[in-house]
């Protein structure tokens, strides 16, 4: 070691950060495990996880369950809840979020350690958790972009109020406005308007705004995206706000077709700038095996498959009134 390196080494040994600053730095880069059924791959803040599947396929239910784990405390009055004790920001783009369902699942998680007949739930804990859940609804792409541009200020304010930061940014569903924007673009082109809405420009703005936000507020981003599956020989159908419109792009868009193990296909319709932004992707589809392996009345079964990174196996999940679980 030469004499030029010694001052740098001494500064490194002496340290220039407090213990709390060190813990915050380590927490930002250290991978963490999401609750089941998203537990297979460790994720870090800055990652973008996309849940892809038809509607319905429990995508929003998985978001709700994950959000509840994030807002719950690690311990409360001697009971271990295993929560992250952080805020969640939920951006609702398809206006399908059910706050009553969210409340019911939160109450169930609070009462779960007490078992059946545990009495009333802890109202103070319930209120604390609900205050950590931040909800925003957008009705079009312009509102979505406006929301993203004001989030830096809002997240700073929420951190001051709650004393903790936002841990998860959830977007349900990222493709909700795609077909409305596409129709608006075609109409503008037909009318020779200068206010043409270009899909690529909107996606670029969304990605850039989220990237800037993550630089100041490190978070894990989880989004959902609705798609339609079809057999190779059938005509594609594309979901548009609960309706379907026929499409014959199969040959033209074959390079954007994804296949799963059951020879079903779905077409990627989001612009490439968004596709390259996604770091992890999970495919969720209905289970072909409808046999009930446990006492699960009024339940729905789905297959959950990691596409990015690709894992060699799938998980079978069951959606019950009290949450989403692995079907053992």
TrEMBL record:
GO biological process terms held by the UniProt record? double-strand break repair via homologous recombination
Q: Which PROSITE patterns match?
A: RECA_2 (PS50162)
Its domain of life reads Eukaryota
Write down the Gene3D superfamilies for this protein, in alphabetical order.
P-loop containing nucleotide triphosphate hydrolases
Q: What is the lineage of its organism?
A: Eukaryota, Viridiplantae, Streptophyta, Embryophyta, Tracheophyta
Named from the GO MF annotations, one term is: ATP binding
Q: Which gene encodes it?
A: 25492821
Return the PANTHER family for the record: DNA REPAIR PROTEIN XRCC2
Organism in which the protein naturally occurs? Medicago truncatula
Enumerate the spans annotated as RecA family profile domain: 23-328
List the InterPro entries hit by this protein, alphabetically.
P-loop_NTPase, RecA_ATP-bd, XRCC2
What protein does this entry describe? Putative DNA repair protein XRCC2
Any one cellular-component term (Gene Ontology): replication fork
């Amino acid at each position: 070691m030469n004499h030029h390196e010694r001052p740098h080494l001494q500064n490194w040994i002496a340290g220039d950060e407090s213990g709390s600053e060190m813990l915050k730095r380590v927490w930002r880069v250290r991978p963490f495990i999401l609750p089941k059924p998203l537990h297979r791959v460790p994720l870090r803040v800055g990652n973008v996880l996309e849940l892809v599947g038809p509607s319905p396929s429990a995508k929003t239910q998985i978001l709700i369950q994950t959000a509840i784990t994030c807002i719950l405390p690690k311990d409360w009055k001697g009971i271990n809840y295993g929560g992250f004790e952080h805020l969640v920001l939920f951006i609702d783009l398809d206006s399908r979020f059910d706050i009553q369902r969210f409340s019911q699942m939160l109450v169930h998680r609070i009462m779960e350690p007490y078992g059946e007949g545990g009495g009333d739930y802890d109202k103070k804990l319930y209120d604390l958790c609900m205050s950590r859940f931040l909800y925003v609804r957008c009705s079009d792409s312009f509102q979505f972009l406006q929301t993203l541009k004001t989030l830096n200020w809002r997240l700073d304010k929420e951190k001051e109020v709650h004393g903790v930061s936002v841990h998860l940014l959830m977007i349900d569903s990222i493709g909700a406005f795609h077909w409305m924007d596409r129709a608006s673009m075609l109409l503008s082109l037909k009318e020779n308007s200068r206010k043409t809405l270009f899909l690529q420009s909107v996606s670029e703005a969304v990605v850039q705004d989220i990237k800037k936000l993550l630089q100041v507020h490190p978070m894990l981003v989880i989004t959902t995206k609705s798609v339609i599956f079809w057999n190779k020989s059938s005509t594609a159908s594309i979901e548009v706000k609960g309706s379907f419109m026929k499409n014959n792009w199969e040959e033209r868009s074959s390079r954007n077709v994804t296949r799963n193990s059951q020879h079903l296909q779905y077409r990627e319709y989001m612009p490439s700038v968004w596709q390259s932004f996604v770091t992890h992707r999970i495919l969720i589809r209905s289970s072909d095996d409808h046999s009930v392996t446990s006492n699960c009345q009024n339940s729905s079964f789905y297959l959950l498959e990691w596409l990015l990174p690709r894992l060699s196996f799938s998980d079978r999940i069951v959606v019950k009134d009290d949450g989403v679980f692995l079907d053992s």
